[in-house]
Amino acid sequence: MSGTPASGPTVTIDDVRDAVAAVLRVAPEEVGDDTDLADLGLDSLRVMRLSGRWRRQGLVADFAVLAAEPTVRAWTRYLGGTAAGPDRPGRNGSSPR
Question: pTM value?
Answer without folding.
Answer: 0.76
